[in-house]
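Weekly modeling sync, notes
Attendees: S.R. (lead), two postdocs, one rotation student

Agenda item 3: backlog of single-chain predictions. S.R. asked that every request posted to the team notebook include the full sequence so nobody has to chase files. The rotation student volunteered to paste the first one in as an example of the format we agreed on. Action items at the bottom.

Example entry:
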Amino acid sequence: MLSLLACTPAPPFDSAPDTAAPGLVDSAAPGDTALPADTAELAILSCADFGTAACLVVDGSRATGPDSFATVNEALAAATGAEDRVVILIRRGTYRETLSIAQPRLTLAGEVEGDASAVRIVYDNANPKDKGDGTTYGTAGSATVVVTGTGFKGKNFTIENDWVEGSDDPENPSANQAALALWALGEDLVLDNVALLGDQDTLCADGNGSLDTLPTRQYYRRCTVVGDVDFIFGRATAVFDRCSIEASGTRLGGSPSYITAASTDQNTLGYLFVDSEFSGDGSFYLGRPWNSAVPGSAVNAQVTVRGSTLGAHVLAEGWADWANQGGVDLLAANMRYLEYDNDGPGAVSTSTGARRVLSGDEASAYEIDDYLDDGTGWYDVDRKGFWAE
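Predicted structure, as returned to the notebook:
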C-alpha cells in the first residue's frame, strides 16, 4: 500500500517550496496575441472587467507592455501590503514557478474566461526530491502553490505539479511520491474553473496552521482535480460543486487506491461533493480516513457525495479502512461517510457496509449552505463584482 505523508501543520513558509528559476515557457512570441482555435471564441479579460480594484498584469512575453510583470511572483511582491483587494490578471502561457500567497484579499485570474488551460502555473518539487543539500522537500515543501491569505479568489488557470513519479530513484523509488499542486490553508478560499493536476496528494484542502484552530472554509466550483493516491486530503470544510474528479490508476499496477483522505474529525462538516463527476481508470475507493492530529487519537472523518456521477472505477465497498494510523485502525464504517442521489456504475441506492445512503430528509442537512454559509455571501461567485470585492 502506498502511504500518505501528512502535510504538516507547521506554518508553510518554514518549508516553502523552492522559488528558483521562475518564468514563462511555451508562451506566444512577443506581440503574438492570437488565441488557440479552441479558445478563440472565449472572452479575454482585461483589468476593466474588475471595476475599481487595483489590477496588476502578468505577461511573460511582455506583449502587454513594459508595465506588466514577467512572473507571477513579481506581481505578488508588488501586491504585498495592500489594504484593499488586488487583482492579478495573468496573460496566457505556462509559468514555471512556485507561489506562496500570504496577502489577504487577493484575486488571481487567467485572462481567458472559461478556459483553465490557457494559463498554467507548474513546478516539479516532490516529497522524495533532493533539494541539492542532501535533504528532500517533503510533502509540505512540495506544493507548486501555497495559499495562506484570507479571502483568496482564483479563476481560469491550472496549477500543476509535473513531478515524474519514481524519478527520485528509478530502481528503488520512494513509496511516498507526494507532490502537491495546491496546499490551501486560507480562510474563505474560492476557486472557479481551476484545474489542479498531479498524482499523489494533488490537493491538500487543509486547516489554517494549528491543530487547535477551527478548519478553514473553501469553495471549489467547476474545478478539475486529477491524481492517483489520496489526491484530495486535509482538514478543511470544503465544497466541490460541479467539479470533475479524475482518478488515474496508471502507476498503480492494478492495486486499489483512494480519492480522498479527509482528516475532518474536528469539523461539524467536512468535504461535500455535489453535482460532480468521478471518472477514471483502475480501482478506487471514494476515500479513507486520515489522522493528521495526535497519533492514537480517535478520528471521525466527514465526507458527503451527493447528486454526482460515479464511474466504474469506484469500488463496490465505496470507502476503505486505514490500518495502523498512529497505532489505531481507522475503520470506514465508523466514519461519517455519506452518499445521496448519485448515479453511474459506481453508485449505490441503498446502504451497505460502510456506504451509508441518506434519506431525502437527512440529505437536507448536507447542502452547500450548510457547509459554508455565514451570512456574508463570501462564496456567491455569481454576484456582480464578486471578483473585485
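Discussion: group reviewed the output briefly. DSSP finds three helices and 27 strands in the chain.
Action items: rotation student to repeat for the remaining queue; S.R. to check formatting next week.
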